[in-house]
Specification:
Elements lengths: L16 E3 L4 E6 L4 H10 L5 E6 L9 H12 L4 H10 L6 H10 L4 H8 L2 H16 L7 E4 L2 E4 L4 H7 L2
Parallel strand pairs: 2-3
Antiparallel strand pairs: 1-3, 2-4, 4-5
Length: 165
């Protein structure tokens, strides 16, 4: 009998969003997901090399794809992590006027930000992350990978133990 398994997530590449030092954690998350917001609070306190990939679950979070596009548009102006952090720490204000306000607060060119977030290139970038998550077996957000091992949900004790192995 053939045993079907998922592929591991792709290794971090030059166009991934990466920050921190330590064991590599590849994170698939949805910027509208409240569990992803909780995971963010945990991950930012851990000494890890965090690789963020978009996994918008629009069936549960209708603004998820728009928020991913906003983060990518901010990335094109060198402010991905600032927009990422802003979206996850204040999920009560995610409609377009609040996105423009965040862009202004981050010092972005708002017209360029708005055009970029609606661009085909940004949509393709988000979709590429999503497809790599599907291939890796991501079924829920957040899902973190340490090596090829998946840790779905908010990081817990098993996840922290895996970082130290």
């Amino acid at each position: 009998m053939t045993r079907w398994t998922s592929a591991p997530p792709p290794e971090p590449g030059p166009d991934d969003h990466v920050r921190g030092d330590g064991p590599v954690v590849v994170e698939y998350a949805d910027l509208e997901c409240p569990y992803c917001a909780r995971a963010h609070l945990i991950l930012r306190e851990l000494p890890v090399r965090r690789v963020f990939r978009h996994f918008p679950v629009v069936s549960k979070h209708p603004r998820a794809r728009a928020l991913a596009a906003a983060a990518e548009a901010a990335a094109l102006q060198g402010r991905f992590w600032e927009m990422h952090d802003s979206l996850l720490t204040d999920q009560g204000h995610l409609d377009d006027p609040h996105l423009w306000g965040r862009a202004r607060e981050l010092g972005l060119d708002v017209e360029r930000f708005d055009a970029d977030r609606r661009s085909e290139a940004v949509a393709e970038r988000v979709e590429r992350d999503f497809r790599s998550g599907i291939r890796a077996g991501v079924a829920t957000t957040p899902t973190q990978f340490v090596g090829a091992r998946a840790f779905p949900g908010v990081p817990g004790e098993d996840f922290v133990r895996a970082l130290h192995c």
